[in-house]
Amino acid sequence: MKQYTREIAIGVANAALLLLLAATTQGFFTADNLADLFLANMPVMLIALGMTLVIVTAQIDISVGSVFAVCGIVAGITAKTGAPMFVALLSACAVGAACGALNGALTAYLRIPSIVVTLATMVALRDGLRWTTQGAWVGNLPAGFLRFGLSQQAYTFTVLLLTITLTAAYAWGLRHLRAGRAVFATGSNEAAAKQLGINTNLVVFLVFTITGALTGLAATLNTVRFNQIPSNSGIGMELKVIAAVAVGGAAITGGAATITGAVLGVMLLGIIGPALTFLGVSAYWEKALQGGIILVAISANVLGNYRSSRRAAVAVAG
């Protein structure tokens, strides 16, 4: 139970906020509002699955916002060629995976710090996309592009089912599969992991590649909600994703995180904005509250690490 203290705390915070909304507002828990809330935060949730793996390996990826924009444009352009929608989806995922693979290769094999690598790809992809599109949006999309040709309800249900399935699969795999244990081992102590026969370079490469593929998936599922695709989408996406994972209890230094914590972090940060609107509070407080929550979460993480170090030192001294 003690190892899930942070997840429990975030869960309690979510429950308290929802109870406050239930007691003081009307309309928040309507089916339409909940569906809109889910769809607005779905991209962050999907990318957070991959970002959790990246952070567990003691790395960071701040390029996901730019990759998100590129993949959305790729999906739209592919669909406009007359290709089936599953081809457009696969194309976006492939481009996202390629971007992630580039980040992973430079980080794992050339040993360039991931913050430097992903900062470079973030800027290069964003400016490259701006130059290629000249800021123009992709329009005149085929009829089958919007929501994959599904009704609003069918699309929402399908995406919800897919998100739940992927989240459950990643949560189970990270905890029970050998690959999941290799991810934790790489982030906890890379040298020890290598002695155990784990190819830590491959682990780092793969978690970046997976994150890129998930970003492509998230971009496509989000893009098909609209009749036009903006070339400037995904701005600030990386901050939302990293913040959600950090709030969910992930150790930025690596070696500790849970998918459950990431889900709760996405929920808490995603609910705050709409909650303020329903509670009649100025929306200008949203970023301030999110920043305060992030600061508290990171401080709790640092304090927990400090206490663990002190206990370990006392045990050795004794």
What integer is the average pLDDT? 91
Number of helices: 12
Number of strands: 0
How much helix is in the residues?
over 70%
Pattern of helices and strands: HHHHHHHHHHHH
Structure description:
By secondary structure, this protein is mainly alpha-helical. It has one domain (2-312): ABC transporter involved in vitamin B12 uptake, BtuC (Orthogonal Bundle), CATH 1.10.3470. It is built from twelve helices and no strands. The chain has helices at 5-24, 31-56, 64-80, 85-108, 114-133, 152-176, 178-188, 190-195, 200-223, 237-247, 259-279, 285-317. Helix 2 crosses helix 10 (237-247) and helix 11 runs antiparallel to helix 12. It starts with a helix and ends with a helix. The model has no long low-confidence stretch (mean pLDDT 91).
Topology at a glance:
Layout: H1 5-24, H2 31-56, H3 64-80, H4 85-108, H5 114-133, H6 152-176, H7 178-188, H8 190-195, H9 200-223, H10 237-247, H11 259-279, H12 285-317
Please outline what is shown here.
It contains 12 helices and no strands. The protein is 75% helix and 0% strand. It has one domain: ABC transporter involved in vitamin B12 uptake, BtuC.
Structural features:
single chain; 318 residues; mainly alpha; ABC transporter involved in vitamin B12 uptake, BtuC; globular
